[in-house]
Specification:
Elements lengths: L8 H54 L11 H8 L15 H12 L29 H4 L25 H9 L42 H4 L1 H7 L7 E8 L2 H8 L17 E8 L1
Antiparallel strand pairs: 1-2
Length: 280
């Protein structure tokens, strides 16, 4: 108590400042630790998701279940799966003069060059990655590739653009030279917040028709292809955690019809803890 007497006010202020500095340091350490834990959780989710998908593929092989037959044509692929596959016929022989001239022409193109939305039989310079849609093994099924990166544009096997309606902002950034045309994103610390699947429907070409069920794991499932073939394979599904407020739930909490449990309904305002899946 002696340090709190009027005659010892400077000592008391010094002590309070030290306590405040210690608390601030603890807060910073806590934020750093939380960030590290989130990073570890994300990587664990990735490893768990890939392991479960590979286990499901092995289980299908063990039961001798023949995979779904490959779709015979791009038109059939569009009708059955909702994904328009690009032509896989007449690929150029790697290293041929024709391929070299096409690659050179692509490299000389600029953001204002005309954009070809689809490919046709016999079109030179095209060698799309083959897909076996509906196969349980991700390596046999293959990735969905739509990037127009210089190293990937010849290997595209689907029509579309990453980011959906937001792809216009990417185009504007490239056109204004604020983003390199060959920019590739860094997926560090972008792992799904939770692990989802796999489900039997993911290996059925007749039940998954409008989206890639492996889209949230694409950069990690096909890491070797990205590294060895210099491909730009990006995720098409984002999985994050979020809080959501609904006026109806807030009134339900206030009237006592809904009791917060701290896990789903978080507090007296009816705020919900949700998992957000966004497909592009």
């Amino acid at each position: 108590m002696a340090s709190l007497l009027p005659g010892n006010e400077p000592d008391a202020l010094t002590l309070l400042r030290q306590v405040q500095a210690t608390l601030q340091t603890m807060q910073k350490d806590y934020k750093t630790l939380s960030a590290v834990v989130e990073t570890i959780n994300g990587r664990v989710n990735i490893l768990s998701g890939i392991k479960e998908i590979q286990a499901a593929a092995r289980q299908n092989r063990d039961h001798d279940q023949p995979p779904e037959p490959a779709l015979p044509s791009a038109q059939a692929a569009s009708e059955e799966t909702g994904i328009t596959l690009e032509n896989t016929s007449s690929p150029n022989v790697p290293g041929s003069p024709k391929e070299a001239s096409i690659t050179s022409a692509i490299s000389r193109s600029n953001p204002t060059s005309r954009i070809i939305l689809t490919t046709y039989p016999g079109q030179s310079g095209i060698d799309p990655l083959k897909m076996h849609w509906g196969h349980a093994d991700p390596m046999q099924r293959g990735p969905v590739v739509v990037s127009r990166n210089y190293s990937t544009v010849r290997r595209r096997n689907a029509i579309g653009a990453h980011g959906g309606s937001y792809s216009i902002y990417h185009a504007l950034a490239v056109a204004s030279k604020n983003l390199d045309v060959d920019h590739k994103p860094d997926f560090t610390n972008t792992e799904p917040a939770v692990n989802i699947g796999p489900f039997p429907q993911w290996a059925n070409a007749h039940k998954i028709v409008s989206m890639d069920p492996l889209g949230h794991l694409a950069p990690w499932l096909f890491r070797d292809m990205i590294a060895n073939e210099d491909l730009d394979i990006r995720p098409t599904i984002a999985i994050t955690k979020a809080h959501m407020k609904l006026p109806e739930l807030e009134r339900s909490v206030q009237t006592g019809r809904l009791v917060p449990d701290g896990k789903i309904c978080l507090n007296e305002t009816g705020e919900l803890a949700v998992i957000l899946l966004t497909a592009s």
